[in-house]
Amino acid sequence: MYRDKDKLAINVAKLYYRSDYSQQKIAQELGVSRPSISRLLQYAKDKGYVNIQIVDPVEDMSHMEQRLKDKLHLKDVKIASSTINDEEEIKKYIGITAARYLDSIIKDGDIIGVGWGTTLYNMSQALVPKAIKGSQVVQLEGGVSHSEWNNYAREILESFAANFDTVAQYMPLPVIFDTKETKELVDKDRYIKRVLELGRHANIAIFSVGTVRPNALFFRLGYTGIEEQEKIQKSSVGDICSRFFDVEGRICNRDLDDRTVGITLSELRDKEFSIMISGGEAKINAIRAALKGRYANVLITDQFTGKALLED
């Protein structure tokens, strides 16, 4: 008798959970009452013939976020759930997640410093409109380039300013000068000095991490010659705001750094929110090194990159 009941309960469970039959349809098919079907389904659960597993991606991301916060000693971590492990797709999802995060923390009077690049551009296109009183948006590094490639510096700043109904403070300069002396002279200009100071006083800094791949945006923009590019690639694993660092997160090309216009990496450590938005397999080493340097206290990345960082 019990064996027959077990077999019937299993058949009912298969029709309900696998074939997606309603309880009423199962009752009609088997010639039994609907309440009997309900009791058989409960019986199948009680006997262990049915195990229900709920996969909640939000819950899974929260668990990864907490593990990364604890391991990397960060103020906050947000994980974007990208549909595939593809660099361009990851940028889109990270951009959306970063825009939502900024919306959750921004308040009246905030000064927001932003870098440039394709990841920041994706974020700028996903911003949640909000008028912020007494706030300003400032460019953290020089962005002028005569290359055919676009670093989106102006578009990003304009999007942020329009989104938060505030004024954009531009850095109308190349990010690298040929000599340290020229760069120091430019720094003394009254307008440039004011923009640099505003960047230093920004309580929110948002930036991505670059790589030293031959096709990295920094190199495509033509800021360095072949010889200097090769030198950077030998000693560096990545950059933040065009300041290059090694695997330990240390500035590794002082001459280049002295010719770079914009916020310094050490100044990023002092921000209330120093938000690094970056992901993808090619950037893992650079992200890891940047976190060793303590240049960010908030990380926004994807689940594939997050998993790689946890496996160290």
From TrEMBL:
The keyword Transmembrane helix does not apply. Residues 57-311 form the Sugar-binding domain. This is Sugar-binding transcriptional regulator. Pfam families: Sugar-bind (PF04198). Keywords: DNA-binding, Transcription, Transcription regulation. Belongs to the SorC transcriptional regulatory family. InterPro entries: NagB/RpiA_transferase-like, RNA_pol_sigma_r3/r4-like, SorC_transcr_regulators, Sugar-bd_dom_put. The keyword Transcription regulation applies. GO terms for molecular function: carbohydrate binding; DNA binding.
